[in-house]
Amino acid sequence: MNIEVIKEFVMQNWLVIVVALIILFFVLNVVKTVLKWAIAIIIIAALLIYSGISIDQIKQTVTDVQSSTMDTLKKEATSMMLKEASKATYTKGQDGAFTITSPNVEIKGRTNSDKVDVTFRGISVGEWKVDNETIRTFVKQAQENGTAPAS
């Protein structure tokens, strides 16, 4: 989204924006029901539609934020794996499943699988391939640290 377009829109439609904000302020302060939020959403949606911002642009922005957040989370998880490899414990199940746990990272997988599920600080960061060097190092170090008894 171009900032110049937004500035131009605000300069040309400042009166409409001010009136919408006054109505929005009035609705939020006077109406005390769920209806006020419905009216507020309608006013905001009307302003967005009037400004020329499409639903596709909003969806694209949300998607960009999501992917950026996941990328950052994956980088942090990878970094944390390297830092916490010496604290990781390896738990092997009877069915070939295993779990590796460290203070901030948990990996669950199967012995002959090429993918593992990674959880970072309680948030799933998806399924990762085992061919990742960091994953292999983390698993190897956890196995060397010793196997915890299966629960």
Explained architecture:
This protein has 151 residues and is of the alpha+beta class. Among the domains are: 1-29, no CATH class; 85-150, no CATH class. Helix content is 58%, strand content 20%. Strands 5-4-3-2-1-6 form a 6-stranded mixed sheet, with helices on one face. Strand 4 and strand 5 form a beta hairpin. Helix 2 runs antiparallel to helix 3. The N and C termini lie far apart (52 Å). The mean pLDDT is 79.
From the helix content, strand content and strand pairing, which structural class follows? alpha+beta
Helix content: 55-70%
- Global morphology: elongated
What's the number of helices? 5
Q: What letter string, H or E per element, gives the SSE order?
A: HHHHEEEEEHE
Strand content: 15-25%
Radius of gyration (Å): 25 Å
> How many E strands?
6
Short description:
By secondary structure, this protein is of the alpha+beta class. It is built from five helices and six strands; from the N terminus they run ααααβββββαβ. The protein has a six-stranded mixed beta sheet, with helices on one face.
